[in-house]
Amino acid sequence: MSQPLAHLYALALRALDEHDRRADALRGRLGPVLAAAALAASLLSGPVVGGTHPTSIVGKLALVVAVGGLLTTILRLAEARDRHLAAYEHLAATFTAMLWGILVMLCGLALAAIVG
Fold it and tell me: Are 27 and 57 found together in one domain?
C-alpha cells in the first residue's frame, strides 16, 4: 500500500476509534438519564393527566419549574444540534475532498500505467 493511502487508513482507524469511544461514553451516560426521566414522567403524569389543576403555590411553582425545564431542554438541544451540524458539514466536506484526492491519484496512476 502506498504511503499516502496508509496514512489515510491510519487516520480513518483513529477517527473510528475516537467515534467508538465517544459513542460508548454517551451510552454510559444515557441509561441513568433515561431512567431518571422515566421516573419523573411516571411520578408527574398521574397528577397532571388525571388530577385537578394545582391550586397551591407549591403546585403552581412545580408546574412552572417543570415547563421551564422542558423549554430550556428544548432550547439547549436545538443549540447543540446547530453547533454540531456545522462540524458534521465540515467533516463531510473534508471527507469528500479526500475521496476526490484519492480518485485523482488513482486516475493518475492508471494513466501512468497506460502510457508506460
Answer: no
Contact (CB, 8 A) for 58 and 65? no
The answer to whether the beta carbons of residues 17 and 114 sit under 8 Å apart is no
- Is 96 in the same domain as 77? yes
How far is residue 47's CA from residue 36's CA, in Å, rounded to a whole number? 18
Q: Residue 68: give the domain boundaries.
A: 53-116
Going from the C-alpha of 61 to that of each of 49, 55, 58, the distances in angstroms are 17, 10, 5
Task: Express each pLDDT in 56-97 by its tens digit.
Answer: 888 788 778 878 888 888 888 888 888 888 887 888 888 888
> 64 and 47, same structural domain?
no
CA 17 to chain CA centroid, Å, is: 16
Phi-psi region of 84 (alpha: psi -120 to 50; beta: other; left: phi over 0): alpha
